[in-house]
């Protein structure tokens, strides 16, 4: 982006507010908001995301940035009464990233900037604690070396472990000042050897290099991967927060912690978080030392505890949501270092939303916006069977719920490799760090022996909806030998383990699962008003009820048989948007289709069609009965006929072997000829859909007759069938007119024969670009459109959906060409533009044209919002995704209403 000469790139914490997240990032905006509220925030300033964008685009910081930073640094030094890195009483600062959206651990932070060989003595003198000063210095060199100079962090960790081993101590707090002086010397040698330069002694150089490193961290592989996973735009950039240091590592009356105003795992109110005495903030989130529960702070420092509880209440009421808070206590003085609306599990999201409604902090419309379809889908996954026989290995902290089973792996590379081979894996680490993100995404669940609910593993897992158990101290994890030891039990890599993120329990072997209570609720086996219905089911029921009240989009199911239709109806389906009749031609009926394909005469073809007719009719009777009173859209036969014939290679071998044995099979020979005759290089673009109905006389007529007779039978049985007949793969209105004329003749004939008045709607699928572009013409012959977005995506992009996802989609996602697969979420700019134009053209011709979508996009949360926006009447999806679509349709309507009111 180009630089505006009048643009302001640096804001003091006193100048911003929580609504400036685009400019100041989430961290900077919230630091400013807490400052405005009069909370104890260390002074500092924020470098904007706009400065980052200029830097990333040009490779250089904005021309005005250095002078702006200098001016704000001067003001900070004046307010603090000390200068950055001065020898006798140094001002130290932290340089921390802060994007608009929380990306925990993905970008860089450097603490204690301003320390040098000269100023470390001054810090020791001012603090009256030599050990503290040298501990802070070694932390700076370690973080700066890894983050800014690109030194392998393991080298520093190994050196620290060696120092502890030499002293025969288990934790770094047992190292004294002399030990830390030696460690600093060792760390500086590592920097010189690995980075090819000395650790910088100039404090301003330290700060400037750290600022650039934070900018650069926006485009690290792990940050880009996290953004793709969370669908965060890649052009936002990060702000940089420069904050005066406060120290939690000044002894037992100091410490650092992370607090939640409610439990992010369950949503329950209470005192939740972690605290670590004599530590800096990174120690908590990195999980390198096991913390104590936040409640223990009351006995450690009651004054700070009481003040923190009051601040937490203030922040939750102000933000009207669960808040995630980082704080430091410096010799009894509480300081707030960060707050944000906290990440939470799916269950917590639903519980908290309804709790806040009951407390009068938000209304039902806002509660609906606080949850989403992806979270609801998570709640529908199975859980472990409480009645199963299990072998308990140990127990940790329930960091992110779910039931995960997989083979134990001990590094991210193996997790990714095995996952791509189809294996389900559990990633086991002492603690995770941002470099483990690949493996965390690939794994079914994450298990660590260190850390708590606010460690890296816990925070990232909750954000991804991934099962996680942290801080299982009884588990001795040996990543080098690729094994885990628990008591006398050894778990080798490849052994199956099961982890329960709701209880923190870890089991050896595979534990069976049972349906989720949320699924039982949707299926009617658990009533939200029943005494045994848990709080989660109650919360889901309340939010779903509101979503159903406000949504405009109706939700139908893709279902091909009565069993699926009944399940879909229990899940809240308001009809069937897609019944694929080709699924009715499989199994024993395949032979009848073979006879149809092999028919040489009209008589043979008619005989084959008459054999299929009663079977088709029976299927439709069952379907109309299951969906009585609701619309059922039946798609006439769509796939290429050769799909109903044997595999060409297999059949060729069979015929060749028979010929070699002089044992000819006339039917096999005819089948082989038919397979060759129908073979196509691109069958999805060949003889299928409406083209079949035009080329094979009577095929579509038989299906329409079966539908009409089934509807008549249901009317005679006092039912209320509402059948809709959909002609697939239409590219021109002439195709539709021919099939429609035939269908109307058949329907009229059935009506005369049965004496039942039949009103069957006739429409088409819009799944070809030409159909979308000529939608105005096609609407003259169609009473409804259903967008087949799977095929429309395939034909717009020129992708074979059966091939490309396995061949090159991974590369496209990694290179950022796709943020998400266009078969998963609709491509709004390409496919979506055709849908939008077809809707407008179709309704211009026929204002009462009914419009729906029946591709898999119909159950995708983001796509549902698009379909609401363009004015479709309904979406249709697989039965399991119906609740998700209902919820998202409600959210889309509520968002639209909110936008209109503003």
UniProtKB/TrEMBL annotation:
Its EC number is 2.7.9.1. It catalyses: pyruvate + phosphate + ATP = phosphoenolpyruvate + AMP + diphosphate + H(+). Residues 423-504 form the PEP-utilising enzyme mobile domain. Residues 538-889 form the PEP-utilising enzyme C-terminal domain. SUPFAM superfamilies: Glutathione synthetase ATP-binding domain-like, Phosphoenolpyruvate/pyruvate domain, Phosphohistidine domain. It is an enzyme of class 2 (transferase). This is Pyruvate, phosphate dikinase. Belongs to the PEP-utilizing enzyme family. It comes from the Bacteria. Gene3D superfamilies: 1.20.80.30, ATP-grasp fold, A domain, ATP-grasp fold, B domain, Phosphoenolpyruvate-binding domains, Phosphohistidine domain, Pyruvate Phosphate Dikinase, domain 2. Keywords: ATP-binding, Kinase, Magnesium, Metal-binding, Nucleotide-binding, Pyruvate, Transferase. InterPro entries: ATP_grasp_subdomain_1, PEP-util_enz_mobile_dom, PEP_util_AS, PEP_util_C, Phosphohistidine_dom_sf, PPDK_AMP/ATP-bd, Pyruvate_phosphate_dikinase, Pyrv/PenolPyrv_kinase-like_dom. It comes from Streptomyces zhihengii. Residues 65-290, 297-347 form the Pyruvate phosphate dikinase AMP/ATP-binding domain. One of its GO terms (molecular function) is pyruvate, phosphate dikinase activity. Its cofactor is Mg(2+).
